[in-house]
Write a structure and sequence with these properties.
heterodimer; A: alpha+beta; Glutaredoxin; two-stranded parallel sheet; B: 69 residues; alpha+beta
Chain lengths: 154, 69
């Protein structure tokens, strides 16, 4: 997703990472109890995971996250007007790039004089699923996170 | 649910279905094509902004929600 942000920056597309809550609390990154801790975890996204996009932090009660459906790694795209134009319950860079290509083409078509009306569409997209990499990520949170995920999901 | 209980339940302390599943409400999330809800957010230095201030800067703003895991 960092590469997507870089690729589309010249098209006046911004990209941020919004830190929410720990989906898999463990010994090293436990559940959040204060904003100070929340900022500390959010900085680790930049310093350890290498997130290069601007990182924003939600309120401790997850007000924004909860209003948008509370999924652990969802992506939304907003137009400048504040209209949500894309939402996915999981993040996949292919899906996001595909949506941006389409949406930027809409901008170009409107500039060319086409009269366009919005409509809603549903589509099933597909994300890469790499359980080995996911478990490696869980290990960063601590053995508790690994153990609980195995028990809940397998 | 008061604020303290909400904070404790939202920031659940273990990944067990009875604690994380109640929060997964994507089907009830705001519809596309309508004005999106706005909220205060903070940058890593503690400076406050709003989601609306961010989407107003660009033709499109991509927001990835997530955590350390």
């Amino acid at each position: 997703m960092n590469a997507i942000a870089d690729r589309y920056a010249t098209h006046d597309v911004g990209g941020i990472f919004l830190y929410t809550n720990e989906a898999h609390p463990g010994e090293y990154y436990p559940h959040l109890t204060s904003m100070e801790q929340k900022f500390r975890h959010a900085r680790a996204l930049r310093d350890i995971l290498g997130v290069t996009r601007p990182i924003l932090v939600d309120a401790l009660d997850g007000a924004c996250h909860r209003a948008y459906g509370s999924m652990p790694n969802m992506t939304w795209i907003f137009a400048r007007s504040g209209i949500a134009v894309y939402k996915s319950d999981w993040t996949d860079h292919h899906s996001v790039a595909n949506a941006l290509d389409y949406l930027l083409d809409v901008v170009a078509r409107r500039r060319a004089g086409e009269r366009l009306a919005p409509f809603r569409v549903e589509r099933l997209d597909y994300r890469e699923r790499d359980l080995d990499a996911f478990y490696k990520g869980l290990e960063r949170n601590g053995p508790k996170a690994v153990r609980e995920f195995r028990a809940a999901v397998g | 649910m008061d604020d303290i209980e909400l904070i404790a339940r939202y920031n659940y302390d273990e990944f067990v279905p009875e604690k994380y599943r109640p929060w997964m409400n994507f089907d009830a999330s705001p519809p596309l094509g309508s004005p999106a809800p706005d909220f205060p957010l903070w940058d890593l230095d503690g400076g406050q902004t709003r989601l609306s201030a961010l989407w107003a800067r660009y033709t499109y703003l991509v927001v990835e929600f997530g955590s350390f895991t």
